[in-house]
Amino acid sequence: MRTITDALRTRAGAIAAIVLAAVLLLAVFGPFLAPYDPLKNSAEILQPPSAAHWFGTDYLGRDVLSRVLGGAPRSVFTAFEAVGIALVIGVVPGITSVYLGRASTNGSRCGSWMGSSRCPS
Fold first, then answer.
1. What burial class does residue 56 get, using C-beta atoms within 10 Å of its C-beta: 0-12 exposed, 13-18 middle, 19+ buried?
2. Which terms are listed as keywords in the entry (predicted)?
3. Do the beta carbons of residue 80 and residue 56 sit within 8 Å?
4. Burial (CB count <10 Å: 0-12, 13-18, 19+), residue 71
5. DSSP secondary structure string for all residues of the chain
6. Residues 66-121: tens digit of each pLDDT
Protein backbone atom coordinates (compact mmCIF):
# COMPACT_ATOMS: atom_id res chain seq x y z
CA MET A 1 0.00 0.00 0.00
CA ARG A 2 1.33 3.43 -0.89
CA THR A 3 1.76 6.02 1.76
CA ILE A 4 1.40 9.77 1.54
CA THR A 5 5.15 10.26 1.27
CA ASP A 6 5.29 7.81 -1.64
CA ALA A 7 2.49 9.69 -3.37
CA LEU A 8 4.21 13.04 -2.85
CA ARG A 9 7.36 11.76 -4.53
CA THR A 10 5.52 11.45 -7.83
CA ARG A 11 4.95 14.49 -10.02
CA ALA A 12 1.17 14.12 -10.00
CA GLY A 13 1.11 13.72 -6.23
CA ALA A 14 3.22 16.83 -5.72
CA ILE A 15 1.01 18.89 -8.05
CA ALA A 16 -2.13 17.63 -6.28
CA ALA A 17 -0.66 18.55 -2.89
CA ILE A 18 0.22 22.05 -4.12
CA VAL A 19 -3.28 22.61 -5.52
CA LEU A 20 -4.89 21.30 -2.33
CA ALA A 21 -2.67 23.52 -0.18
CA ALA A 22 -3.52 26.55 -2.34
CA VAL A 23 -7.25 25.89 -2.05
CA LEU A 24 -7.01 25.47 1.72
CA LEU A 25 -4.89 28.63 2.10
CA LEU A 26 -7.33 30.64 0.00
CA ALA A 27 -10.22 29.24 2.01
CA VAL A 28 -8.59 30.33 5.26
CA PHE A 29 -7.17 33.69 4.19
CA GLY A 30 -9.46 34.49 1.23
CA PRO A 31 -11.90 36.72 3.09
CA PHE A 32 -8.98 38.83 4.32
CA LEU A 33 -7.45 39.06 0.83
CA ALA A 34 -10.65 40.15 -0.91
CA PRO A 35 -10.11 43.57 -2.51
CA TYR A 36 -13.73 44.72 -2.02
CA ASP A 37 -16.67 43.98 0.24
CA PRO A 38 -18.37 40.96 -1.39
CA LEU A 39 -21.84 42.20 -0.41
CA LYS A 40 -21.50 45.84 -1.43
CA ASN A 41 -23.34 46.88 -4.59
CA SER A 42 -21.88 49.46 -6.96
CA ALA A 43 -22.78 51.23 -10.18
CA GLU A 44 -20.22 49.19 -12.17
CA ILE A 45 -22.74 46.58 -13.38
CA LEU A 46 -21.58 43.59 -15.50
CA GLN A 47 -18.07 44.91 -16.07
CA PRO A 48 -15.63 42.59 -17.83
CA PRO A 49 -12.41 41.55 -16.10
CA SER A 50 -10.03 44.46 -15.66
CA ALA A 51 -7.22 45.67 -13.42
CA ALA A 52 -9.77 46.99 -10.91
CA HIS A 53 -11.97 43.86 -10.97
CA TRP A 54 -9.94 40.76 -11.89
CA PHE A 55 -13.01 38.53 -12.39
CA GLY A 56 -15.32 41.39 -13.37
CA THR A 57 -18.56 42.38 -11.66
CA ASP A 58 -21.98 40.77 -11.50
CA TYR A 59 -25.44 42.15 -12.31
CA LEU A 60 -25.53 44.08 -9.03
CA GLY A 61 -22.04 45.56 -9.46
CA ARG A 62 -20.42 43.31 -6.84
CA ASP A 63 -16.81 42.22 -7.38
CA VAL A 64 -16.81 38.55 -8.40
CA LEU A 65 -13.30 37.83 -7.08
CA SER A 66 -14.29 39.14 -3.66
CA ARG A 67 -17.39 36.97 -3.71
CA VAL A 68 -15.38 33.87 -4.64
CA LEU A 69 -12.82 34.52 -1.90
CA GLY A 70 -15.57 35.28 0.61
CA GLY A 71 -17.45 32.07 -0.19
CA ALA A 72 -14.42 29.76 -0.21
CA PRO A 73 -14.47 28.92 3.53
CA ARG A 74 -18.09 27.82 3.42
CA SER A 75 -17.49 25.72 0.30
CA VAL A 76 -14.47 23.95 1.80
CA PHE A 77 -16.33 23.34 5.07
CA THR A 78 -19.26 21.86 3.13
CA ALA A 79 -16.88 19.57 1.24
CA PHE A 80 -15.38 18.33 4.51
CA GLU A 81 -18.88 17.75 5.88
CA ALA A 82 -19.84 15.71 2.81
CA VAL A 83 -16.71 13.57 3.09
CA GLY A 84 -17.33 13.04 6.79
CA ILE A 85 -20.93 11.98 6.25
CA ALA A 86 -19.91 9.62 3.42
CA LEU A 87 -17.19 8.18 5.64
CA VAL A 88 -19.66 7.44 8.43
CA ILE A 89 -22.27 6.03 6.05
CA GLY A 90 -19.73 3.78 4.33
CA VAL A 91 -17.27 2.78 7.04
CA VAL A 92 -19.62 1.99 9.91
CA PRO A 93 -21.73 -0.58 7.99
CA GLY A 94 -18.59 -2.00 6.38
CA ILE A 95 -16.79 -2.56 9.67
CA THR A 96 -19.97 -3.91 11.24
CA SER A 97 -20.50 -6.42 8.43
CA VAL A 98 -16.89 -7.61 8.64
CA TYR A 99 -17.11 -7.91 12.41
CA LEU A 100 -20.34 -9.92 12.20
CA GLY A 101 -18.91 -12.15 9.45
CA ARG A 102 -21.36 -11.17 6.74
CA ALA A 103 -19.00 -9.32 4.43
CA SER A 104 -19.63 -11.66 1.51
CA THR A 105 -22.53 -13.78 0.34
CA ASN A 106 -22.63 -17.51 1.14
CA GLY A 107 -19.04 -17.52 2.33
CA SER A 108 -17.78 -16.86 -1.18
CA ARG A 109 -15.31 -14.03 -1.71
CA CYS A 110 -16.81 -13.17 -5.09
CA GLY A 111 -20.40 -14.26 -4.78
CA SER A 112 -22.35 -13.64 -7.92
CA TRP A 113 -20.49 -10.98 -9.81
CA MET A 114 -22.35 -9.54 -12.80
CA GLY A 115 -24.51 -12.66 -13.13
CA SER A 116 -21.65 -15.17 -13.31
CA SER A 117 -20.38 -17.44 -10.58
CA ARG A 118 -16.69 -16.73 -11.20
CA CYS A 119 -14.50 -13.94 -9.83
CA PRO A 120 -13.47 -11.04 -12.03
CA SER A 121 -9.83 -11.18 -13.05
1. middle
2. Membrane, Transmembrane, Transmembrane helix, Transport
3. no
4. middle
5. ---HHHHHHSHHHHHHHHHHHHHHHHHHHHHHH-SS-TT---S-TTPPS-SS-TT-B-TTS-BHHHHHHHHHHHHHHHHHHHHHHHHHHHHHHHHHHHHHT-SSGGG-SS-SBTTBSS---
6. 999 999 999 999 999 999 999 999 998 888 888 887 555 555 555 555 555 555 55
